[in-house]
Specification:
With 143 residues, this protein is of the alpha+beta class. It has a single domain, classed as Pnp Oxidase, Chain A (Roll), CATH 2.30.110.10. It is built from 3 helices and 7 strands. The radius of gyration is 15 Å and the shape is globular. The mean pLDDT is 88.
């Protein structure tokens, strides 16, 4: 079995646009919703996502910054499907300079005033644990 690295995870999730982000809801249950990578996957163990201040996502993170990210990819070049589960610590960023660093035009579908869209928040998710599955192989990736 070949050892999977964070760089390998980066290549895998770069091909997957949407992650399911899981948070702890106010009622204590786990809530999940699709979040786009926005093509921002130069992966070093940190993911970035945009959301809005009044969303359940942001309120959940304010209560408990421990989140989960799940990715399911189509078959890779070696013909195996890839699955990635990331446990992460989230941070909410409200700085327009940071928005600009992680912006692309696709985000304007939801944030029509660009980085000046009222209530915009950038979620920085720093991985603390990564699991990777490809075919029948499972590995925990060192972050």
């Amino acid at each position: 079995m070949t050892e999977i690295t964070v760089a390998d995870v980066s290549k895998a999730i770069a091909q997957i646009d949407v992650a399911m982000m899981s948070t702890r809801a106010a009622n204590g249950y786990v809530a999940a919703r699709p979040m786009s990578n926005n093509g921002d996957v130069e992966y070093d163990g940190v993911n970035y996502f945009f959301a809005f201040d009044q969303s359940h996502t942001v309120r959940d993170i304010e209560r408990d910054p421990r989140i989960g990210l799940s990715y399911v990819g189509s078959k890779t070049l070696v013909g195996k499907r890839v699955f990635v589960a990331i446990e992460a610590q989230a941070e909410l960023i409200r700085d327009k300079a940071a928005f600009k660093e992680h912006w692309n035009k696709d985000i304007e579908e939801w944030a029509d005033q660009g980085v000046d869209t009222p209530g915009l928040v950038l979620i920085k998710a720093r991985a603390v644990r990564i699991h990777h599955w490809s075919g029948q192989e499972e590995q925990e990736v060192t972050v």
